[in-house]
């Protein structure tokens, strides 16, 4: 059975993902789809509506910005420095870069009102949308408008693994359960296309982050790992690893990369100022260009969650992932 068949009807088991957050007041009855009961989706675009009651709007003096927790947080604080300076100019507010350590902590921070602007990775985007009221509106793209990355399963030269089937009876490193390329997509693909499941056909370990998995394979601590190749390319460009230290045995279709957006209850005018900052930011010569040109990104591209995350929601459905918050 191929992945296209699995996406529309198989049932592999994955524990429901949830966040323990107390004191959340339920919203009035309204259309909401998969969104948490605190949110409404009257316009049917699958993301939380901005509250109609202005008393529920947030207009903080200090805006907290976070990038998805991959690689060295210190590297990305510097990489985003020119953009956060520009964001201060556009909003008239102080902007603080917050280095999150996990997807769960990042989602909880936005859900509790402590995170206002963020980039959520591909796999955690739907949970952030449905549990935390995240409103994504852009991703990074190449100059020609193309975008995305592929999931790769990598090993090291001489490991004895030359094809996916060679993983049987061995170990495969994932990143975290919320990661698309680091867990959800490879789980669906391995089951649908190769008839292989974790704990039955191979042992699963979790490294926490893509760079941990890539370094682990390069240093022969992990025999194989599923990773986002955009992270691999940046690590090679920074000489963190050498290209010949890892070998790719599988590459997936292209997936959308990190989605950037805001908390649903920021003041509407502030949300528009933040959007304008993303789309008017000048990449040329900036700290963003210096870092993200390593994976060929060159601008911010407008997107909708409903369209761009359609394939990810199908993968989640195939893995029985729940967006329910508890």
What do these coordinates show?
Residues 1-26 form the signal peptide. With 326 residues, this protein is an alpha/beta fold. It has two domains: 9-146 and 257-318, D-Maltodextrin-Binding Protein, domain 2; 149-255, 3-Layer(aba) Sandwich (D-Maltodextrin-Binding Protein, domain 2). The protein contains twelve helices and eleven strands. Helix 6 links the parallel strand 6 (171-174) and strand 7 (203-206). The longest helix is centred in the middle third of the chain and has 15 residues, at 180-194. The protein starts with a helix and ends in an 8-residue tail after the last helix.
Low-pLDDT segments, ≥5 res: 1-27
Q: What's the CATH first level of the largest domain?
A: Alpha Beta
Distance from N terminus to C terminus (CA atoms, Å) equals 34 Å
What number is the mean pLDDT? Answer: 90
CATH topology of the largest domain: D-Maltodextrin-Binding Protein, domain 2
Pfam family, one: Phosphonate-bd
InterPro entries: PhnD
Family: Belongs to the phosphate/phosphite/phosphonate binding protein family.
Organism: Denitrobaculum tricleocarpae
Task: Summarize this structure briefly.
InterPro entries: PhnD (IPR005770). Keywords: Signal. The chain has 326 residues and is of the alpha/beta class.
Write the layout of secondary structure elements.
Elements: H1 3-6, E1 62-66, H2 73-79, H3 81-91, E2 94-97, H4 103-111, E3 117-120, H5 125-132, E4 134-141, E5 149-155, E6 171-174, H6 180-194, E7 203-206, H7 210-218, E8 224-228, H8 229-237, E9 247-255, E10 259-263, H9 268-280, H10 287-292, E11 299-302, H11 305-308, H12 310-318
Parallel strand pairs: 1-2, 1-3, 6-7
Antiparallel strand pairs: 3-10, 4-10, 4-11, 5-8, 5-9
Helix pairs in contact: 3-9, 4-5, 6-12
């Amino acid at each position: 059975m191929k992945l296209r068949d699995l996406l529309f009807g198989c049932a592999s088991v994955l524990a429901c993902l949830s966040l323990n957050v107390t004191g959340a007041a339920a919203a009035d009855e309204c259309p909401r789809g998969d969104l948490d009961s605190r949110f409404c989706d009257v316009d049917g675009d699958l993301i939380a509506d901005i509250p109609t009651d202005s008393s529920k709007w947030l207009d903080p003096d200090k805006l907290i910005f976070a990038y998805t927790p991959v690689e060295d947080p210190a590297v990305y604080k510097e990489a985003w420095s020119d953009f956060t300076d520009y964001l201060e100019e556009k909003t008239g507010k102080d902007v603080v870069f917050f280095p999150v350590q996990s997807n769960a902590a990042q989602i909880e921070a936005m859900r509790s009102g402590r995170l206002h602007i963020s980039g959520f990775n591909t796999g955690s985007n739907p949970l952030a949308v449905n549990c935390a009221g995240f409103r994504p509106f852009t991703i990074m793209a190449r100059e020609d408008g193309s975008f995305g990355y592929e999931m790769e399963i990598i090993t090291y030269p001489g490991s004895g693994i030359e094809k996916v089937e060679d993983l049987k009876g061995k170990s495969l490193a994932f990143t975290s359960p919320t990661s698309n390329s680091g867990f959800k997509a490879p789980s669906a693909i391995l089951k649908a296309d190769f008839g292989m499941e974790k704990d039955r056909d191979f042992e699963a370990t979790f490294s926490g982050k893509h760079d941990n998995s890539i370094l682990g394979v390069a240093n022969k601590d992990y025999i194989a790992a599923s990773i986002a190749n955009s992270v691999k390319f940046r690590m090679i460009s920074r000489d963190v690893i050498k290209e010949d230290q890892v070998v790719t045995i599988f590459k997936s279709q292209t997936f959308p990369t990190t989605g950037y957006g805001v908390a649903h209850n920021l003041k509407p005018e502030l949300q528009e100022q933040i959007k304008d900052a993303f789309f008017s930011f000048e990449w040329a010569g900036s700290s963003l260009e210096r870092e993200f040109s390593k994976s060929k990104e060159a601008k911010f591209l407008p997107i909708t969650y409903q369209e761009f995350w359609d394939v990810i929601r199908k993968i989640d459905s195939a893995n029985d992932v729940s967006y329910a918050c508890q």
